[in-house]
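QA checklist item 7 of 12: single-chain prediction sanity check.
[x] sequence parsed
[x] length recorded as 157
[x] structure emitted
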Amino acid sequence: MPVDRERVEQFLFREAQLMDEHRFDEWLALWSEPALYWVPSNRDDLDPAREVSLIYDDWVRLQLRIARLKSGFAHAQEPRSRMRRLISNIEIEDVGDWEIVTHSNFLLAELRRGKQDLFAGRTTHRLRPENGSFKLISKKVLLVNNDEPIDNLTFLI
């Protein structure tokens, strides 16, 4: 199946917008089971079964994360972070009729309580074509500073 680059890019830009605007239900609706949302800690290629990750969510944990962010009990997100991110250097791998793998770079500006942080990294998305769009089946975020202390990573990255 030929990959429509524009559709893939629009999906990635849309996902970024939903995260930046805290549109949690719409973001969660982008996902499909089995889901894996992974942000390694300390290095990029660790074994998540043996080492700690910043985020390592399957479908159930992903739903719990969104429920907590919406509940008002995510105190590290009161007030919510103001965020905007740039997505660039998008590379697309066509790995078959049922899956597309993308790699992209991002730069995220996050402001909360007068403190601004910048996060940079590379994201790998695994997408499944579905009903003229895509569903996310996994997302791995490699933060440039994943081996440094991170004060607040309680938002969607």
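[x] summary fact logged: The longest strand covers residues 115-130.
[ ] second reviewer sign-off
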